[in-house]
Description:
Layout: H1 9-18, H2 24-30, H3 33-66, H4 72-78, H5 102-109, H6 111-128, H7 132-137, H8 139-146, H9 149-159, E1 166-168, H10 177-180, E2 198-200, H11 205-228, E3 232-239, E4 243-249, E5 260-264, E6 274-277, E7 287-292, H12 296-306, E8 318-323, E9 335-341, H13 346-360, E10 370-377, H14 384-399, E11 406-412, H15 417-425, E12 442-443, H16 448-458, E13 463-469, H17 472-485, E14 494-499
Parallel strand pairs: 9-10, 9-13, 10-11, 11-12, 13-14
Antiparallel strand pairs: 1-2, 3-4, 4-7, 5-6, 5-8
Helix pairs in contact: 3-6, 5-6, 6-9, 13-14, 16-17
Amino acid sequence: MLILLPVCRNLLSLVRGSFGCCGRTMRKQLDKNLSFHKLVAYTIALMTAVHVIAHLLNMEWYNNSRLGVYDKLSTALSDLADTRNTTYLNPIRKINLDPQQNPNYLVFTSIAGLTGVIITLALIIIITSSMEVIRRSYFEVFWYTHHLFIIFFIGLVFHGAGRIVRSQQTTNPPHNYTLCKDRTEDWGRIPQCPMPQFAGGFPQTWMWVIAPMILYLCERVLRFIRYTQTVTYRRIVMRPSKVLELQMVKNGFKMEVGQYIFLNCPAISQLEWHPFTMTSAPEEDFFSVHIRSAGDWTDKLIEIMQQLPEGAQGPKMGVDGPFGTASEDVFDYEVSMLVGAGIGVTPFASILKSIWYKFKDSNPKLRTKKIYFYWLCRETYAFEWFADLLQVLEKEMEERGMGDFLTYKLYLTRWDQSHADHVMVRFDQDKDAVTGLKQKTYYGRPDWGNEFEQVRQENPTSVVGTFLCGPEALAKVLAKKCAKYSDVDPRKTKFYFNKENF
């Protein structure tokens, strides 16, 4: 049950919106849905291993009991026949086989054994293909094998129908355990020792599975409905660093900052859906995504778009969403620190665009008083597609006398000697040699200790929201810094860490 609920994204978005008036702690827990999903999966894997090992040991004990290896009681219980007056306990019923083959025969001829093998193999494939290296490099493998969960749940429902685990039933007159356990030859002969009867328990797995399966089925039906809705391309642009920008329009589509959608392109695959954070603002009459070349699916999509004639519509595109993320809460903080790594800047493009519109419209509901923006990139041309927006924001803030509202720092983490020479020649110019912005590009990685200390000194009584869209290693660093630089005095600076998870 718990394994499916964290991936019911529409349900989570609905619940997250319902908790909008509640504390941020509740919403932060909902943002950790995938972490919870993984935790439940690891628990299932561990319990499955324990379950399988226990059954293997039981099969060995059952077989030895059938052969009379143990005491007289276990042999008598194993010899109970399945007749009108008695029911068996030992599930190994065939006695005319090679004794060493009895456990194998039971595993591959019983409902419990066959379904157990199937769901165990499905679980192994699902877990191994979910490893980070597979998911990042071969997303298609991860996507398709993950749908073996359907076979897993079907097998799980029927697994208990074999009723291989049996318990003793009440007889009339009752069986006196204390007296009869040492008098097996008197079973059925004296009133105190009627033949013991055993029966398998009623299968109950379906009771635990049916509710989340119905919820998940509703999710898929809603996805199909959204898939059938028409999506029109407003603009298709190839940005530097093999980044594709798609601006799209869909009737009734409404979004918030930092949200993401799932895209499906039937021309590439009918089944694959891939998540992308939207880079447009809610105030715009379209929604957009920036897609970096990062695998077979994205490479094929970029190739298709590059071959389109000027002004032509692209292939059919299915859109599911939007879905909520931690970045939705950015305007709930007086001060926000936005940290993006590479293409991870996309949710903050949406945020910064929305800020520009709010200032343009003089929106009185804007609570945020200060934003610190950090963008880390390996390549210089990765800055190009986003620099235009920063230039507009620079100009807008200066015209309104709010130059201190947005502090941004761009970090180039990789460069060569020719680039260094180019920068040295133009170092004295008013604008940056890489981005054309007034703010100069930094080289290397941020000293996060200094950055957090600066934010704390400039905002001594504020609650600061720290938002990251980037690698897990950076997330661990920022989470530790948030804890370290938060003051124990609730009246002083407090940092809250938020990370994109999808």
